[in-house]
């Protein structure tokens, strides 16, 4: 019995509003913060898509502080709820407000980063806010984690999250949420000027050194061997994948969905509905 309710209509309205407000014409007109910080790395994607592994690899570099799943961007969006709920009030937001929010956020990150210049924020659901992130941090970079849709959804379904993620308790809600995520990422890639790198989980576990090198180069970092020994890095990991980043990369989770294929007809039907 599913005791949790995921409001599809409310979620779709939010996605529709985000696409409408952060459209190409508006993104050309909207002011941007003057924050020059180019060392902010946002790791986004579906839950269970490799975001924790990606952050652990990056945070093993001596110049990177892994901040984990921060709610700061969502909190900033909430502060922009004036007479209109976010994102509907964005067209009235001026550069002064963006500067204030941006520099305050950077100051907060610097206070926690132990002197390391680069900071990662791996809140997966920040894919909802990439338009806002570009306005706040025009020089930031986005690392977008992608995993096989069936493996992603199945892993979400098997995981009892500590809070939220109410879409993960039945297959059709999972498929719906995934489709809305895919809509947003397709839009961002065609609309934003902020750099976005796709990191495919299957490629990362198959060839970790090549993909890790590509990730570091994209992030503006030189290669460091510690990134391959990420499982030895001592740092707090407070997500569902905490145990998996304490050991070397393994491939057991690739195509895991095939073990459960006979149960996945509703998920597959909804997920690949055109």
List key phrases describing it.
about 270 residues, alpha/beta, 11 helices, 5 strands
Uncertain regions: pLDDT < 50 for 5+ in a row?
none
Give the total of beta strands.
Answer: 5
Gyration radius, in Å: 19 Å
* Biggest sheet statistics: 5 strands, parallel
H/E series, N to C? Answer: HHEHEHHEHEHHEHHH
CATH architectural arrangement? 3-Layer(aba) Sandwich
CATH topology: Rossmann fold
Q: DSSP strand (E) fraction?
A: 5-15%
Strand order of the largest sheet: 2-3-1-4-5
CATH class: Alpha Beta
Overall mean pLDDT score? 90
Number of helices: 11
CATH superfamily annotation: P-loop containing nucleotide triphosphate hydrolases
Number of domains: 1
Q: Looking at the structure, what is the overall shape?
A: globular
Structural category is alpha/beta
Terminal residue distance: 29 Å
In short:
The protein is of the alpha/beta class.
Characterization of the model:
The protein has 274 residues and is of the alpha/beta class. Helix 7 packs across helix 8. It has a single domain (8-271), classed as P-loop containing nucleotide triphosphate hydrolases (Rossmann fold), CATH 3.40.50. The protein contains 11 helices and 5 strands. It is 43% helix and 9% strand. The mean pLDDT is 90. The chain has a 5-stranded parallel β-sheet with strand order 2-3-1-4-5.
How is the topology of this model organized?
Elements: H1 8-21, H2 24-29, E1 40-45, H3 51-59, E2 64-66, H4 72-79, H5 95-112, E3 118-121, H6 130-136, E4 141-146, H7 149-158, H8 171-191, E5 196-200, H9 201-206, H10 208-219, H11 265-271
Parallel strand pairs: 1-3, 1-4, 2-3, 4-5
Helix pairs in contact: 1-8, 7-8, 8-11
